[in-house]
Amino acid sequence: MKLIKILLFIFVITGIFSLTGVMAITRGYIDIKIPSFSGLYTDGDYQKTITGYQYLETNDARDSLNWYDERAVEARTRHTVDPISSTSWKDVIIDGTINWGNQNSAFGVYRLELRAKLFTPTKVRYWGFWTY
Amino acid sequence: MTKFLKKNGIVIVVFSILLIWGAFAANEYRVWRNQNTKAYYYYVDLCENKYNNEAQYKEYCRDLIDSGPPIKADTLTIFFDLIGRYSLNYLQLIAPIFVVAVAIWNFHKELKSGFFKNILTRIEYKRYIMKRVIYSYRFSFILPMFLLYIFLLAYILSGHFNIEETMRTYPDTLFIDEKFLPILSTFLFVYIFNLVLHSIFWINIGYILTKKSRNIIVTLTALILVYIAIFIIAEVLIGGLIFSHIFHIRSIANYLNLANIWVYEGVDTLFLMLLYGFILALSSFFIVAKLYKNKEGVIVENEK
What we know:
The complex is a heterodimer. Chain A is mainly beta. Chain A is built from one helix and nine strands. Chain A has a single domain (24-131), classed as Sandwich (Jelly Rolls). Chain A has one helix at residues 2-20; strands spanning 26-34, 46-48, 55-63, 73-79, 85-86, 90-91, 96-99, 108-116, 124-131. Chain B has one domain (70-301). Helices cover 75% and strands 0% of the residues of chain B. Chain B has helices spanning 2-49, 58-67, 75-85, 91-113, 115-119, 125-136, 142-158, 163-169, 184-212, 216-246, 252-256, 270-291, 295-301. Chain B starts with a helix and ends with a helix. The interface between A and B is large, with 34 and 45 residues.
């Protein structure tokens, strides 16, 4: 049921963006696996064409072996071309949204990096949306 | 001098690795901070010289210049950043190797070379084992000493303790939960004391493995495998399946997670974390005492 809700949400978001033509882009992360032992998850570099805050909305983060265990995840964005820089690591909020303020509000090429806060042998399953 | 080096060689090696590793992590942090400062001035320069007449960048440039250059975070924030967010976070997995290596190295050599039989002609077996085990527990203070060194590095990088300013400028970036800040001294005491208790637990596992293992490298490798196995059993099986699934007490998994002694994620009662550390240290000590109780058994095992 949760998956259907998330898919529906993505559909609605995509629909709204296609109608309004805003330039901020939202990427969905559905049941991605954040590597064990605090490994980094990233899915590539993306062009941010406007200035403005970047947001990460998180729906859920769970242990891959123990579904009952809600896992702490932290996130940052990295500007991957000159001037190379990255924001501070920030705890994601489950059922909430975080932003990094001015740290990554310039246009440029960014990547989102996610990792589990705890250094454990198990992976983390993650659901969320990154707006840049 | 040669005798001193021979006896304390492993201690010197481990301390050297930790000192260099700490300095390396501090440098990683310094590079990250310098990159961000450089990036800030790059964008300010763009705003002042290239985009000063463009309406679309007006608000962005005003915000950027008003916010000022990145500030230096306070000592405590940098301290926990260094522990949890740079290369030092691998300590959460391999810290047991450092502690156990120095704690059991000489005992392992004595036992496997048969030299301990010569010692037993002069000293009673029970006294020898107890002395060895208890004496080695002093190495459980390696991690607290190392943390003190990291704290000094954090102070060198920061130069101040103004955590309010850091939290105002970079909200929600503190590695530990902010709810521990009002009880910081209690939290730090539990944090350090728990590291000591877990170190004793790791040392005990080292002793348990030493009885059967012929080689110190095999012992240390087995230690990590056993540690990961206990990790999974405690968190997934006991915390997840039994407490969360059957008894619906979901927060227990956080307390049972062995790596949580570095993060304290989802921990509401510090006492429970301490209690878990006590239970691990005490129960593993009883296993060591039982395994090494029989003198003949230990001698025969090491004659193979």
